[in-house]
């Protein structure tokens, strides 16, 4: 059998996903904004989740979709806005794609140069969401930038 018929895929562990949740919750507490935090594995399946006390109900789905978007495309959710803003047909149509989020707060999780999952945060203004998600990644020494 040829080696080109299969590939090995690395994915985030449950333990590391929980560490990201804890780091993001600590950052959210530091800035005083209760958040919903989701971590997905390399294929966008929910791996870890927390809804902090006081975080908005609507943010549950948004955080999960931010993490999914980041893992599914390997770019941060805020990068989507930059990608589509000057492309009228794409801007008008792609936003109807289920689970796609085009504002900040979702980042791919990259370990040793390989994307292994995604983190999504929602609960404040998207700039707060970005601050919490990127703060968690930085605290644990991994990349999330696209």
From TrEMBL:
It comes from Actinomycetospora termitidis. InterPro entries: GlcG_carb_metab_protein, PduO/GlcC-like, PduO/GlcC-like_sf. Gene3D superfamilies: Haem-degrading domain (3.30.450.150). Pfam families: HbpS-like. This is Heme-binding protein.
